[in-house]
Amino acid sequence: MKALLAGAAALALTVSPATAQVSADKPSVEQQIGAGGRPVGANWSRSPVIAQHGMAATAHPLATQVALDILKDGGNAVDAAIAANAALGLMEPTGNGIGGDLFAIIYDPKSGMLYGINGSGRSPKGQTLDQLKQKLNGADALPPYGALPITIPGTVDAWFAMHERFGKRPMADNLAPAIRYAREGHPIAPVIGMYLDRAFKAYSAREDEFDFSNARKVWFADGAAPEAGEIFRNPDLANTLETIAREGRDAYYDGALTDVMVDYLQAQGSAFTRDDFASHHSEWVEPACAEYKDGYELCELPPNSQGFAALQMVNILKNIDLSQWERGSPEAMHYLVEAKRLAYADVARFYADPDFSPFPQALLSDEYGAERFGLIDPARATPEFGPGEPKLEGEGDTTYMTVVDGDGMMVSLIQSNYRGMGGGLVAPGTGFMFQDRGELFSLDPAHPNAYEPGKRPFQTIIPAFVKKDGQPYMTLGLMGGGMQPQGHVQVLVNIVNYGMNLQEAGDAARFNHDGGPQPTEALNGPFADPLGTLFVEPGIPAETVERLQAMGHKVEVVDNGIMFGGYQAIARDPETGVLTGATEMRKDGQASGY
């Protein structure tokens, strides 16, 4: 396997000097017990899950079981995805909820087509950029807290749009498991408990800047975050979901609940009106695909999401054979990072709501990819890449999940409140937090991503889909702000160039390049951090870190896994229908099937 086992073992187990600290009461990393042996595959991974009739992979085992229960009870993959997503809004509030947005790619075996849905919300229609700037009191960016970064939450509308087109079971039945868990309680998972504690500390440090009182009552009533294993209940969310299940989509966007949300938001300084909610709608969009190598095609959704950045990376990297080097080599890492930086320079310049600024389709051409590849110096990191002339960043908290049913319907779904748990605001009695996605608007009026009334901001959340030899093959997602496109490509490279299975491709050490031009900065700079920082996990060999630094990259080793995303994937054999699933070791998740 092209020196995979030796290279992958080094990738997973080699620790850079930065993490090998010795103390009197703790042995060095080299002395600690390592991975056990495995009869097949890499020692640092575990087996992928294999099943036949249906499969789900989510960031929480209970949500995965919810999806499987729906499938076993006659629902299809869309029904199961909605049910699991509703459960995750309760169980993983640090990553998602009905106060946020949703994107999905759905493969329908009846039509043989991919369908994309953009469930992202817009800014207030009655507020101009100048009016917003007055509220910002001279700040040069939108804040991550309070009313100003909120955009209309799109998740509930997207659920109903997906269900109307593809669903089989009544929506009330799909929402019933989340309602039951919200009312009766569920135990907090370990990683989610850690994120809740982080969120509580972050909000508490700035609660004089926004109304944190309702969020405290929902999640932190005892003066601290709930811990792993503690039973957590959210009766307010149960009531909200029951109302939605009973009254449908309009319960959220054109009903009594709407009045509660609008009255509260206006009291917090928001310009949203009832009409902003009532006029919201999701959009069905067409995914685009870019061929990589060996018959593999990566498919992503168009802007206002950043999905096409992954396609741009693929079009750059297809111009070189990465498998001539080991996966953990400085050469392979260098080309991956520089391809990311080139693609993201275009993200910062061109990606925005297409209703306001059409996307230049030439950015996705093979010719443009080859042109950008020619800018890579094989020996050195280029200090600054600018956008092309065609003929994001930040740690985001998100959940990715995927469901495939026995008929071959495949759902790749991502959902998020953006930074943290959202902007900190919870309307009284609702049990969910509003997103802070509007933080990603630029305040430069000349920028395609500039704030405007009734506009969708640049979006980081992206589901992915992979075709093989023209056939539907795999759902794929890797959550986490600007990590997502580069994460999609790293996983694809691990599978295609280095022969890893689905689980190994996600467990292998990753990098997250952060910095460079941002879609929130002024159109023509100057940019705060043109080179950016290459963050790597401890599994990247120390020798590779040193070589990359010598090549001009600014490299830092991070050992907690937080900024490297959360991965799920399911592959379906087009001939046998056998399903293979994988989940993320950096989260609490589970892939399971039957």
UniProtKB/TrEMBL annotation:
Bilayer-spanning residue ranges: none
Post-translational modification: Cleaved by autocatalysis into a large and a small subunit.
Signal peptide coordinates: 1-20
Sorted UniProt keywords: Acyltransferase, Glutathione biosynthesis, Hydrolase, Signal, Transferase, Zymogen
MF GO annotations: leukotriene C4 gamma-glutamyl transferase activity
Pathway it works in: Sulfur metabolism; glutathione metabolism
Keyword flag Coiled coil: no
Reaction catalysed by this enzyme: an S-substituted glutathione + H2O = an S-substituted L-cysteinylglycine + L-glutamate; an N-terminal (5-L-glutamyl)-[peptide] + an alpha-amino acid = 5-L-glutamyl amino acid + an N-terminal L-alpha-aminoacyl-[peptide]; glutathione + H2O = L-cysteinylglycine + L-glutamate
Listed EC numbers: 2.3.2.2, 3.4.19.13
Entry-linked PANTHER family: GAMMA-GLUTAMYLTRANSPEPTIDASE (AFU_ORTHOLOGUE AFUA_4G13580) (PTHR43881:SF1)
Assembly and interaction partners: This enzyme consists of two polypeptide chains, which are synthesized in precursor form from a single polypeptide.
Protein family per UniProt: Belongs to the gamma-glutamyltransferase family.
Protein name: Glutathione hydrolase proenzyme
Organism: Qipengyuania citrea
